[in-house]
TrEMBL record:
Source domain of life: Bacteria
Protein name, UniProt field: 3-methyladenine DNA glycosylase
Length: 311
């Protein structure tokens, strides 16, 4: 009688440990400077964002996962039995795969994971597919950051340690002289109280699934959020691809903001000028193309999780 088919692939230590080590080094490049700044009580207006706005901690980010459907074999895999959502292979699975009894072998417990994370899995599917299906919009020019600083004399600003490049009055004029049509709730919710009514749309958490569109910088940064919320069912390489895109998007987002970051080594993108607008849109289109490929990869990785819910 033929051996029973196993619904996952296997990686031996010589194949998965180098990937885990490469992932840790990739994360350390971003996380170690942040931890050092945090311990010293210092801030960075760009490089802290992915660790302070998002909820995924550096230690969590540093853990590499193979994703759903891949078992890890080898003595070092035993550590993962103490990690959430992992389980040991059964005797039947070991026998079918030819894994010796004295060697650790672990895999994501997909049914248990899917049952616990059902709401997250379903919401991520709605957001990823809905965003991909809509036409991108490239006319926002990053004005959400300006709207957050609108009438700063009255309301103050979020980044109180940064000067405004055009001053308070100049920042207010830019807001008042432009059409503001932000589609992203998690940007809109930080608008100053006087700026919120100026936005042509009034996004809410409930309408997020209807308004997200693939040209939006924040929607594309949030691919990192959806990736880590689906962890450890998402491969570490895909998680870090999303992280690094979000890092570069955040850099451009702040360069186009009303803040003067020249002292930090970042030249402004002067979106109040025609040349600045053109520079912004060119970069925005490039990020949208990168994000589209990542969104497709995330949707593909999501499919077995959705299938587990349906089984």
């Amino acid at each position: 009688m033929p051996a029973r088919a196993i619904p996952f692939s296997f990686l031996t230590e010589d194949r998965w440990l180098p990937r885990a080590h490469a992932h840790a080094a990739r994360v350390a490049r971003f996380a170690e400077p942040f931890v050092a700044r945090r311990n010293a009580g210092r801030k960075h207006p760009i490089e802290d964002f992915l660790f302070t706005y998002y909820t995924h901690k550096p230690g969590q980010l540093g853990r590499w996962h193979p994703g759903a459907g891949t078992a890890l074999v080898g003595h070092d895999a035993a550590e993962r039995l103490g990690w959430k959502h992992y389980r040991a292979l059964t005797c039947t699975e070991r026998e079918a795969a030819g894994v010796e009894e004295d060697i650790a072998a672990v895999v994501l417990d997909l049914p248990a994971y899917a049952a616990e994370r059902e709401e997250t899995i379903r919401f991520c599917g709605i957001i990823l597919r809905g965003t991909a299906a809509r036409p991108p919009q490239f006319g926002c020019f990053g004005l959400h950051e300006w709207a957050m600083a609108y009438r700063s004399v009255k309301f103050g600003i979020r980044h109180e340690y940064l000067p405004l490049r055009l001053g308070a009055d100049g920042t207010d004029r830019v807001v008042e002289e432009h059409r503001i049509r932000c589609t992203h709730f998690d940007a809109f919710r930080f608008y100053s109280p006087d700026a919120a009514p100026l936005n042509e749309l009034q996004p809410t958490r409930a309408t997020q699934r209807d308004l997200e569109q693939p040209g939006c910088l924040h929607a594309n940064m949030d691919l990192y959020k959806w990736a880590y919320k689906l962890g450890p069912a998402i491969p570490g390489e895909l998680l870090m691809d999303c992280f690094e895109l979000a890092w570069r998007v955040r850099t451009m987002d702040m360069q186009a903001s009303p803040y003067d970051l020249s002292g930090w080594g970042f030249e402004p993108i002067a979106i109040e000028t025609p040349a600045g607008k053109a520079e912004y849109v060119e970069a925005q289109r490039g990020f949208a193309a990168e994000a589209a490929a990542l969104r497709e990869r995330l949707t593909t990785a999501l499919a077995p999780l959705e299938a587990a819910l349906a089984s």
